[in-house]
TrEMBL record:
PANTHER family: RFBJ PROTEIN, UNDECAPRENYL-PHOSPHATE 4-DEOXY-4-FORMAMIDO-L-ARABINOSE TRANSFERASE-RELATED. This is Glycosyltransferase family 2 protein. Residues 12-123 form the Glycosyltransferase 2-like domain. Coiled coil: none annotated. It comes from Lujinxingia sediminis. It comes from the Bacteria.
């Protein structure tokens, strides 16, 4: 996609935890002409992640409470001081291809969607990049989402874009592993226009804090399923209250 003549303000939000080796690669690969600013949320790193980010011109904020969602929420509070039109979420491990950002935001720029999920399962994957436990977990969560909410997704991929207006309406709350699925569930519940685009995926630099360990995989799987069923129970309860008030 060619750079539009009138480009909305696009900010990139990157939560990081001990990513000093991979983060410079991520920041260098972001197409600068498309992005107003990059905000890196340091989630309590014990290495030089924050310094590496500042060296490459990113804004750095700190969130000492560990958790992917906690870092994202902190980043959003920072962005709220000067809100963008579109937020792009990107991991700091260089498993995604930041150069594909224009393709991820394209449906929003064309008015075709408010939320775009970069699907790793629809895109080209390096062999072994998406671990078996991640594949199974994503598949199960996506099947349940379709059954519960009627929205069809193929992935819970972290590389995604959403309009600021839609994001504010979602009122995100999750502070750890349920962040991505919470966003997709709430988009479905609110009828927000959501689409997927294929994105490429490679082996990350370093070891995953989630799927790279048995404990991390178990905790993430539990939280994703818990979020799915908790949100569904809330919807059923709210529907019951609406039905009762109409009686």
């Amino acid at each position: 996609m060619e750079l539009p003549e009138e480009l909305p303000a696009i900010d990139v939000l990157i939560p990081v935890l001990n990513e000093e080796e991979s983060l410079p690669l991520v920041l260098d690969a972001i197409p600068k002409a498309w992005v107003r600013r990059v905000v890196v949320v340091d989630n309590g790193s014990e290495d030089r992640s924050a310094a590496r980010a500042r060296e490459r011109g990113a804004e750095v904020v700190q969130e000492l409470q560990r958790g992917y969602g906690a870092a994202c929420l902190r980043g959003l509070r920072h962005l709220a001081e000067d809100p963008p039109d579109v937020v792009v979420f990107l991991d700091g491990d260089f498993s995604d291809f930041p150069s594909e950002l224009p393709g991820v935001v394209e449906p929003i720029l064309k008015g075709e969607a408010e939320l775009v999920i970069g699907s790793r399962t629809l895109g080209a994957q390096e062999q072994g990049a998406l671990l078996v436990q991640a594949v199974v977990g994503n598949k199960l969560a996506c099947v349940l989402m379709e059954l519960m909410y009627g929205y069809r997704f193929s992935d819970l991929g972290p590389f995604r874009a959403i309009t600021w207006e839609a994001l504010q309406g979602l009122r995100m709350r999750d502070e750890d592993f349920g962040w991505t699925v919470e966003m997709q569930i709430k988009a479905a519940r609110q009828g927000i226009g959501a689409v997927e685009v294929p994105v490429s995926y490679r082996k990350r630099v370093g070891v995953s804090k989630i799927t790279g360990t048995l404990k991390g995989t178990a905790l993430a799987s539990y939280k994703i399923l818990y979020t799915l069923f908790a949100q569904y129970a809330l919807e059923v309860t709210e529907a019951g209250h609406r039905g009762g008030s109409d009686a």
